[in-house]
Amino acid sequence: MIKHLALTAIAVAVMATPVFAKEYTGTLKKIKDSGTIVLGHRDSSIPFSYIANNPKQPIGYSHDLQLKVVEAVKKELNMPNLKVRYNLVTSQNRVPLVSNGTVDIECGSTTNNAERQKQAAFSVGIFEIGTRLLTAKSSGIKEFTDLKGKTLVTTAGTTSERYIRAYNAKNNAGIKIISAKDHGDAFLLLENRRADAFMMDDALLYGEIAKSKNPSNWVVTGKPQSFEIYGCMMRKGDADFKRVVDNAIIATYKSGEINTIYNKWFQKPVPPKNLNLNFPMSNELKSLIAKPHDKEA
Questions:
Q1: Which of 188, 176, 190 is nearest to 147 (CA)?
Q2: Burial of residue 25, with CB atoms counted within 10 A of its CB: 0-12 exposed, 13-18 middle, 19 or more buried
């Protein structure tokens, strides 16, 4: 009888003990308190994050992975009705908008490098690219050494811009370099013959070809000058949010769903012109998916 009473008392005590909800900090707390997650997106990083037919709805390879993160955050916070708000970012303002809390996470075509790691945190890598040239087939330009006396455009605030300016100075290469505000404007300068070549990440260059008026006029050429890994960008020092983000991306890799997402954006027709980039998955990206990490290339 005494034993029975003791067990009953314990059971009553357990039932009476309040169940405390998990206390979140940082980005997860911000999202939980506001009921909204703010996603940074690009408008012309085809096919990673861009606007096609609906001006209010970004799409792309990186955006699909970003939505995987949203689903993971909903599950983590037990908020199935969590709202999503989009915030357009550019090459120039994406880092400060993440750092100052305007954007919770940015998934586009942002290279994870040592300089940016000082200001932001990166997820495990989501893509690996090489920096090359886009030019007209009739230009005669095949390598960077063919650019002497030519005009090259790149996008302001990108790693390509920093690289080509350093390359030009170090090698006395004689390249006239101009910087455009975004990838779309850079290609427009090339298309209007105000530039002879456009330097950028190879996958983005194929994206520009896909949306051009005459895709058959253009070619991606030149030995890659650098290899870079893209990651989703978050505020520094927020280990709990990074854990949720990394786990969501790694789960997409392990399930094999990443292959479906890749084929959707690089092996099939994509909006707005329904052209196929025909960009096979590189061995570097396959290795990254097999062994995810958040280090720079």
A1: 176
A2: exposed
140: region left, alpha or beta (phi > 0 left; psi from -120 to 50 alpha):
left
Residue 227 burial by Cβ neighbours in a 10 Å radius (0-12, 13-18, 19+): middle
Which of 98-107, 209-218, 228-237 bottoms out in mean pLDDT, i.e. has the lowest? 209-218
For tokens 């990440």, what's the residue?
A: 201
Collapsing DSSP states into helix, strand and coil, what is residue 294?
Answer: coil
Rounded to an integer, what distance in angstroms lies between the CA atom of residue 162 and that of residue 224? 15
The DSSP code for 60 is S
DSSP annotation string for 207-263: HHHHHSS-GGGEEEES--S-EEEE--EE-TT-HHHHHHHHHHHHHHHHHTHHHHHHH
Return the residue matching tokens 């290795």: 287
**Entry pTM:** 0.83
Can you tell me the distance from the alpha carbon of 6 to that of 22, in angstroms, rounded to the nearest whole number?
30
